[in-house]
Amino acid sequence: MIRVLVADDHAAVRAGVLLILGGAPDIEVVGEAADGRAAVELAMEMRPDVVLMDIRMPRLDGIAATAELNGVADVIVLTTFDQDEYVFGALRAGAAGFLLKNIDADTLVQAVRLVARGDGLISPSVTRQLISAFAQTRTAPEPEGLTAREREVLGCLGRGCRTRR
Questions:
Q1: Rg for the chain, CA atoms, rounded
Q2: Is there a contact between 5 and 32 (Cβ–Cβ < 8 Å)?
Q3: Are 36 and 44 within 8 A, CB to CB?
Q4: Nearest alpha carbon to residue 71 among 85, 51, 101
Q5: What span, in angstroms and rounded, lies between the C-alpha atoms of 42 and 65?
Q6: Cβ(90)–Cβ(42) under 8 Å?
Q7: N or C: which end of the chain has fewer CB within 10 A?
Q8: Residues 97 and 112: beta-carbon distance below 8 Å
Q9: Phi then psi dihedrals of residue 77, to 5 deg
Q10: For residue range 90-104, what is the model confidence (pLDDT) as tens digits?
Q11: What is 27-77 written as a DSSP string?
């Protein structure tokens, strides 16, 4: 049985998530929280396998709450916000997943199962942002201890240049 805690400041969202997860025979919702501080306190007490965490919540936001739960439970951030700052912040805080609330019920249930067994996942629409951001920040390290000519030759080799023979 996968034990889940649901943290969202909107009661209607929590109720919907509870309804969705309640239909899965292998998932048990062990608690719900309306703010980040309550989510952390409940998770410390209940020790769920997975926490579904909203980003924007009172008292303690979802990113800070996720950081506090690192090593306690796997966190799936479930939010309406796909801005880079939230995606990167959640992942840096240790989230095992990042999903947008526009997913269907089956995807949510599968996400909980995936994360509970040790996998991670990110909404496909957010994955493209991550790839783009990674590609922009990825730079090759500057070779140390090489002369200018050696760096030039190394650059030529990297581009597929050949020596004359």
A1: 21
A2: yes
A3: no
A4: 51
A5: 11
A6: no
A7: C
A8: no
A9: -80, 125
A10: 999 999 999 999 999
A11: EEEEEEESSHHHHHHHHHHH--SEEEE-SS-SSS-HHHHHHHTTTTSEEEE
Residue 140 and residue 151: Cα distance in Å, rounded?
13
With beta carbons less than 8 A apart as the criterion, state whether 51 and 73 touch.
yes
Token pair recorded at residue 28:
């048990």
Q: CA 156 to CA 59: how far, in whole Å?
A: 56
Residues 148-161: pLDDT tens digits?
777 777 776 677 77
Q: Which domains does the chain have, with CATH numbers?
A: 2-137 (3.40.50.2300)
pTM (whole model) above 0.85? no
φ, ψ for residue 131, nearest 5 deg: -60, -45
| Amino acid identity, position 18 | L
